[in-house]
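Problem 12. The chain below contains 317 residues. Write out its predicted structure in token notation.
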Amino acid sequence: MTKLKPPVREYNFTDSYLPQLADGILALLVRDGLQFEKRRWTEAKTTNLLALRDSFVATKPDDYYKGILGIKTEEKDAARAVLSTPIRTIFVAAENVFGVKSSHYSSFGASGISKLSDDEMIRNSRLVVDTAHEFLSELEDEGITEEMLDEIDVLIETFDKSVDAQLAAQRNRDSATADRINKGNLLYRALVKVCNTGKDIWYETDESKYNDYVIYNTPSGKPEPTGMGRVRGTITNAAAEPLEGVLCLVKGTEIVAETDEYGEYELENVPVGKQSMEFSLATYKTYLDEVVEVFENQETKNDIEMEADVTPTPPET
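Solution.
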């Protein structure tokens, strides 16, 4: 099964600012309703925009899922600590009876339980109990009893369930994060479309109203002059297959990146203006893009299709 790439937020400001931005734009739609009606904006579109906003607002923030994960991790750690004590006791008993260099002692598994992963701890603890049952007559003088081993089985089960609960909490957090990002991106895209129309409506007639529709995709949601922008894109071959390991560089600078397994690259802090970019990969022709226009605090999308290099290899002499 193909691994799904986690979604990426398309907006740079906070999740808490996005609904505020939506509310402001919805207010502009009321103010400029007549102008938008001429662009075939309908009540149904407004209703859809409200639904996108409400759907995003209904998502819980990451702090909630992070807190739940923290609780489950603490419970798991506590269950492991409780289990470690009797397991360590059995190892001490086995050492006293058989000696640490004996085959009997080795049959109990790894004694360095603090270094084991959670999964290894569960497996090793079950081995310890099973082996203790086998040599119970030898271990009885050390205080190891059938009742004690039954109690350890319960502790192992409790620890096993706590590990599962922690993993479930992590999966829930990952799923909720992806859901929140996807819903945020849908809302953001819808707002961008509205603002593109709004800017076009007032482009030649009202600078103030034009500026009302400008979205600043910055951490603060406000203009933050940096003189830099960002370039992102996907590189594929003629069969539309993503190319991994393509070297992407902005010529005349030290700004460079490589494409990932999805053929995607990202270049941060690229100087504003028209840049020249070069893309290279073994067995493919080097691609030179002479004009990549970069805008301040904005992202330029630059997808590339590279051509395979079919130059024949000269015969060996």
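Discussion. The two ends are 46 Å apart (CA to CA). Students who got a different answer should revisit the alignment rule from Section 12.3.
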